[in-house]
Sequence to fold (247 residues):
Amino acid sequence: MSEKLELTGMVLSAVPVGEYDKRIVLLTKERGKISGFAKGARRQNSPLMAAAKPFSFGIFECYEGRSSYNIYQAQISNYFEKLSLDFEGAYYGMYFLEFADYYARENSDEKELLKLLYASLRALENPHLPKKLVRYVFELKTMVINGEYPEVFCCTACGSTEQLRGYSHAGNGMVCAECMREARAEPLLESTVFTMQYVVATPVEKLYTFTVSEEVLAEFARIQDRFRKTYVDRKFKTLEILESLQI
Fold:
C-alpha cells in the first residue's frame, strides 16, 4: 500500500472527471506541481467539495500513485473568499494561478513560487494596493525565481552601476546615461529603475510594501510586457480576458 503523504499547497486548477470526481493540479511545497484525483469531490456532502477548488490553500493528505496522487482529505486554511466576491480581483487571481502553473515543475523545489503566489493573492485582497501593480510585480518576481530576469543593477553596454537611465530590450537590461543613444535604449524614470531593482532583489515577505505613481506604473508595465512576451512562449486565456476588459 502507498505511503500516506501530507503536502502543503494550493489548488491551481480543477476539472470534473466522471460523475462525481475532480482532477486537480496542486502547487506544493514538498513535491512541486502535482496532479491528483479528489474522489467524490462533486458530491454535495463531500468533505473535499470546497477543498478541490482553485485558490484553496492548506494541507492535502494523499496517497501517491504511479502517475498521479489520490487526495482523500484536506485541511484548508485559506480559500481567498474575497477574490471570489471581487470581479476584477478574481480575474487577476486566475491569471496568477495560470502563470504559476506555466512555471512550476513536478518534483522540483517550488517553495519560493508557492510563497510568492500566496503573498500575491493576499496583495490582491489589499484595497490599498493597485491590482495592476501587483500583477506586474508578480510576473517579474516569478520570472526571477525561475532564473529569467533583466539586468537592472548595471549598464548592459559598459558595466557602469551609475546613472542608469534607460532600458535596452536588445541587451535585456538597464543602460547608463552615456550609453543610451548607442544602445537605442528606452528612457526610464529613476523611480521605475528603482522599482524593478526592488522587485528583483527583495524577499517575497517584503515585496508588497510600496506603491508607485501612475507614470512609473505605466513604464514598469510597458517594460515587463515586452520582457514577458520575449521569454514566455505561451498565451494565457485569463490574461487575454484581463486585457479585453482593460483592467
Strands lie at 4-17, 21-28, 32-38, 57-64, 69-78, 164-168, 173-176, 186-187. The CA atoms of residues 13 and 197 lie 32 Å apart.
